[in-house]
Amino acid sequence: MDRFPNAADVDFHSPLDLSKAAVAVLDADGRVSGWGSSAQRLLGHAPEDVLGRPAARLLAAADAGERLAALCKVRKPRSAVLDLCCRDGRALRAAVTFSPLVSQGVAATVVVAAGLEGLRGWEAQLAMLQGLATESPVGLTIFDTDKRVVWGNVSTDLELAGIAQYIGRPASDLFPEGEFISRHHSPDEDEVMDHVMATGEPVMGMHYRGRAPADPVREHVWSCSYHRLVDARGETLGLFEESLDITDRYRAQERLSLLVRAGKRVGASLDVRRTAAELADVAVPQLADQVLVDLPPAVIEGRQPPTGSAPGHNLLRMHGRTPEDFRTSPVSYPPSSLQALSLATSRPVVDDALPRTPGEKGSAAAHSSLFVPLLTRDAVLGLATFRRSGNPDPFGPEERALAVELAERAAVGIDNARRYTSQHAAALVLQRSLLPQHLPEQSAVDVAYRYLPADSRVGVGGDWFDLIPLSGARVGLTVGDVVGHGVHAAATMGRLRATVRTLALLDLDPAELLTRLDGLVAQDSEPHADDGLGDEALGVTCLYAIYDPVSGRCVWSSAGHPPPIVADANGSAALSSPAPGPPLGLGGLPYENVELSLSDASVVAFFTDGVVEDRRTDIDSGIDRLAHVLTWQRCPLEELCDRALSVRPPGPQVDDATLLLVRTRRLDTDRVADLELPPDPAMVAHARTVTERQLEAWGLSELSFTAALVVSELVTNGIRYATGPVMVRLIKDRSLLCEVSDNEHTAPHLRRARRDDEGGRGLFLVAQMSQRWGTRYTSSGKTIWAELGVP
After folding, report:
1. CA 699, 701, 703, 704 torsion: positive or negative?
2. Is residue 455 very low, low, confident or very high in pLDDT (cuts 50, 70, 90)?
């Protein structure tokens, strides 16, 4: 048997009520003289079984007769708990009331009995109702069908500072400035109450925000539920509201959600201004109406915060919600100010010197400010100020702790951004110092170039380019890219650029140069013994090309780098078709030369993938865009560079972009003289004569003696060691170039001859009389060249 009835069966009549209880009458001798149907329902005995018999037989206790006699002799009602015998043999513990009855001189006793468990349940219901009305923290309010206050329990009475003054008044008078809080639609109170009374559907757990009349200073949040009240006939009586003050829990959840948002957003940008804006965006308006961040200029520029200066002196104030509308202004705090105190003690300080009256709104002046220092393990970076103007509540202890934690997160983000800014600036300076500051003058090509670093949040990359003057009026052109960003990528780039320049000056062909460079990179990429880490050069791409203005021949080779785009003099642009070789550092894989014949005024574009790559499209689309720009090849090269980079997709760039444009030139035939000589020592004199005549024709008679001597020494050396014809070439360029080629691969050696030596002074004389000299090797032999300065 259930101790308590089901909710649907709740009956607030007492079990001892005459309409429900078992009733019997005992005469003066304790015999049953009256037996009602309710008594039969309770114990199961029929009237004929008990009438006229002793009532003691209905009691289960051994001393039942004596106890029954005592209860029947009392002169006023008396209650007791007795065990009654049921017809089926069970013992029923019941609450029994004995009431004396004297009628016309005949004494009798009226007995009213009910099951003890039912009575206890009824008493528990009464206790529950009493507790809800007087002791429960849940506010209970009853409204009639006109939404006017009818009744409220003690909790409601305390919140309203007296429920009596609101009886008969509409619900809207209880909290005039309150409102429901909802992520989507926030209905007003009348709308909610009308819906519940019209449909009978309860509304549960609505969050309501307002200020209670008993506590008008602090804003509260309640969880409210509404139920319709109906009578026994099903007619609507009104509305029943439950409200529970969940302010502390709600604020705690808000603080937790704010910290979660701060963890995701504050400090993720590696930018000082953006981090300050992120702090303001997270804290406003939930914690404060305005957030100010004051930092020394050194921190904003990526340097260490100054030490030894007065706290709060010479700061820059940043205020706004986004980096775009962030404004900076200088600010300094006097030593006696609360801001200076916060910075000096590294502790938060609250300024509530200008209290606001409850309900005051619309004033821009802050009535409460919280100053929190931005602390790192090394130093105090600055100060964050949280201001309240529209929110009249002062900063409480929990909110101060929240502001401190937000400031700690912001300080970490600002310090990371400061360190990154410093590293990025150092990497950028390093990279720019390692790239060519100006390209040398030469006659082979006209040149224009652009280098655009990646977005600052990504970091400086490892792009490089170079133009290297070579012998024979030729020029070496290179462009490359180091995987990664930062100082390491920039340093690796500088080392590789220097290596390419050194190898190029050995007059190696492109494929041979990349092969040697690949071997060096592979060695550098091996794990170091101390840390097991490989060098960042692994995965470098590079393209190297040599252009000869005498023949118009361009030879290039690529190590994983996009091939050049060539636009001829007619404006037709196309990508060089052969696929590039493997990136540098893999080791052991071959590289091949690609030969192009370029007409005069052709435009060749060497570029890194940052020029043509885009996350939204494939690289082929970027190459097509660049090729289309090069069809305007008659434009000045500087304008072509600007056009090529202007068509890149907008937005932050994740990689450096390097573009090197060259317009080829062909040397006029009257500036080149070739002479073929048989391997006969008598041809030395002929070579001297031809050289003197050619220089006289070029108007360089002043160089005739020096040039003739250099040519004779080189021809003599070639005839002495070669087995085939010797070729002599004179080129009039910015300097006079003298070249002698033969079919031998033996390298000449410069040495200092002794006094008694008959030979060995030829190359020494050549080295002394020329600006530069050297040897380059071809598939058919070698060429010794010397460069003489033109007066």
Report:
1. positive
2. low
Instruction: Write the pLDDT tens digit of every residue in 765-784.
Output: 888 888 888 888 888 888 99
Task: Tell me the pLDDT tens digit for each residue of 85-133.
Answer: 888 888 888 888 888 876 555 568 888 888 777 777 666 666 676 766 6
Show the 3-state SS of 122-152.
Answer: HHHHHHHHHHHHHCCCCEEEEEECCCEEEEE
Looking up tokens 């490892």, which residue turns up? 462
Token readout for 410 is 């912001």
Query: What CA–CA distance (Å, rounded) separates 648 from 616?
Result: 12
* Predicted confidence (pLDDT) per residue in 649-682, tens digit: 776 667 788 999 999 999 998 999 999 999 888 8
d(CA 518, CA 502): 14
- In whole angstroms, give the CA distance from residue 667 to residue 440: 18
Contact 561, 570 (CB under 8 A): no
Q: How many CB atoms lie within 10 A of CB 185?
A: 7
In this structure, are residues 742 and 781 in contact, taking their beta carbons and an 8 Å threshold? yes
Q: Taking Cα atoms as reference points, which of 350, 332, 352 lies closest to residue 342? A: 350
What residue type is 538 in one-letter code? L
Rounded distance, CA 240 to CA 227, Å?
A: 5
Q: Which amino acid, 748? A: P
Give the per-residue SS3 of 341-355.
Answer: HHHHHCCCEEECCCC
User: What is the b/e burial string over 626-659, where b = at least 16 CB atoms within 10 angstroms of the residue's CB?
Assistant: bbebbeebeeebeebbeebbeebeeeebbbbbbb
| pLDDT band per the 50, 70, 90 thresholds, residue 183 | low
* Residue 47, CA distances (Å) to 25, 583, 604, 647 in order: 12, 111, 123, 108
